[in-house]
Specification:
Number of strands: 24
GO molecular function: serine-type endopeptidase activity
Keywords: Hydrolase, Membrane, Protease, Transmembrane, Transmembrane helix
Strand content: 25-35%
Pfam family, one: PDZ_2
GO biological process, one term: proteolysis
InterPro entries: Chloro_Bact_Ser_Proteases, PDZ, PDZ_sf, Peptidase_S1_PA, Peptidase_S1C
Oligomer: single chain
Distance between the termini: 106 Å
Radius of gyration: 37 Å
Length: 450
């Protein structure tokens, strides 16, 4: 039954339904105790063994808790928890000027330079084979090089873009104009309509040593804007191949991800020593980490200035020939396994003036071995139009050294591409015209003029 006036939820299990008639105890005043107050002692049996075991267990727990920074105190009446709070005063990061003389902490480096870094978002529209307009978007990073709004980034960040927007650390967004760029060196210059901007301070990338500390600031994944990562210089003058184009790079283990491309790489003095350009996330079937790359600023600064003035690199060295890496058929004719084949030479061009002929194999430039077209392209990056160098070619079973003065890229050539490219076979499997004529007689073909 549920009719007990003292306990509405008391139920009787008696078959006859009667209730227990004992009087309910008289309620006394409620006694409140704080959790830490001792409870009334009760008489207990002596359990010395259990007390000793409990004491040993408590000591073990105290030791572990102390290692974790938390102290547990045991009193007679209960447990007490005390969390240790640090009283250290946070260090205030002062914004310092980059003068190339003072070593900066990572926090100071970031504070001094974050306003010079930018986030870049570009979009492009193209027509697919069905005649449909397809829009694409990409993100990257960059850095301000002048107070009136000139910005440096990678060429691949804005390549083919119909719209480019630049966002500053302050949150302001500007439409950007692409002044120009160069695909071979993966550099581009943008311009926004702004004044009074904070520009970076350029450093000397040639002074970097393996083990130097460097920092990258950028826009990883296109969303984590103005993030900074740090690491060391793993290698200098690292030759790598990116999509068939050779680059001389600074290798670093700083975390670099898609979206970081075009951002600045700072040394410990807060100076820009590189342009973040690529990251190898995999090699063959193996996953790798800690491989980031940046273009040395010394290698491209003259070209950046050239782009700012002329819209493209005007002093790129021009060979004036169609060349390509040796293949098996060519190797049989020359008994050479490596080198760069001369397919054709332009009348009046630098190659013809130097004495290069169809069928020559370029094996060295200024003593530097040339085993492939990539080697030749990388070697050319060390020269400008008008520079003279010694070119070693294999002809008629012997090595010949020629003096070649690089020419200037013709106006009708695409300034975004290095004109020295490998010659291609036509659809019937034939070689370019001049090469086929050299070996087999006249036959029409195709090739790329350099």
């Amino acid at each position: 039954m549920y009719n007990d006036e003292h306990n509405l939820y008391h139920y009787t299990y008696r078959k006859d339904g009667t209730e227990h008639t004992a009087e309910a105890p008289t309620a006394g005043p409620a006694v409140y105790r704080e959790p830490w107050e001792a409870k009334p002692e009760r008489k207990k049996k002596s359990r010395a063994g259990l007390k000793i075991a409990a004491l040993a267990l408590s000591c073990a727990l105290l030791g572990g808790a102390a290692g974790a920074g938390v102290m547990w105190g045991v009193s007679r009446g209960g447990d007490e928890v005390n969390v240790q709070m640090s009283t250290r005063t946070p260090v205030k990061v002062n914004k310092v000027s980059v003068d190339g003389q003072k070593l900066l902490s990572d926090a100071e480096n970031y504070a001094a330079n974050v306003n010079s870094a930018v986030s870049i978002n570009s979009s492009a529209a193209s027509t697919n084979i069905f005649g449909q307009v397809v829009e694409s978007a990409s993100s990257g990073s960059g850095f301000i090089i002048s107070q009136d709004g000139y910005i440096v980034t990678n060429h691949h960040v804005i390549n083919g873009a119909t719209s480019v927007k630049v966002t500053l650390y302050s949150g302001e967004t500007y439409d950007a104009t692409v002044i120009g760029g160069d695909e071979d060196y993966d550099i581009a210059v943008l311009k926004i309509n702004a004044t009074g901007l904070q520009s970076v301070v350029l450093g000397d990338s040639d002074s970097l040593n393996v083990g130097d500390h460097v920092l990258a600031v950028g826009n990883p994944l296109g969303e984590l804007t103005f993030s900074m990562s740090g690491g060391m210089v793993s290698s200098v003058n690292r030759a790598i191949n990116v999509d068939g184009t050779p680059f001389n790079m600074i290798q670093t283990d700083a975390s670099i991800n898609p979206g970081n491309s075009g951002g600045p790489l700072f040394n410990e003095y807060g100076e820009v020593v590189g342009i973040v350009s690529a990251k190898y996330s995999s090699y063959s079937s193996e996953s790798v980490e800690g491989l980031g790359f940046a273009i040395p600023i010394n290698d491209v600064w003259a070209m950046i200035e050239d782009i700012m003035t002329n819209g493209y690199v005007t002093n790129k060295p021009y060979l004036g020939a169609t060349v390509g890496t040796m293949n098996a058929a060519m190797a049989q004719q020359t008994n050479l396994t490596e080198g760069v084949y001369v397919y054709s030479v332009e009348p009046g061009g630098a190659a013809e003036k130097a004495g290069l002929q169809v069928g020559d194999v370029i094996t060295a430039i200024d003593g530097r071995t040339i085993a492939s077209l990539e080697d030749l392209t990388a070697a050319k990056k060390g020269y400008a139009a008008g520079d003279t160098t010694a070119v070693t070619v294999f002809r008629g079973g012997e090595d010949i050294e020629l003096q070649l003065t690089f020419g200037t890229l013709p106006d009708n050539q695409d300034n975004q591409h290095d004109a020295t490219t490998s010659a291609t076979q036509d659809q019937t499997g034939g070689y370019p015209g001049d090469l086929f004529d050299y070996f087999f007689g006249s036959r029409p073909g195709s090739g790329t003029a350099a």
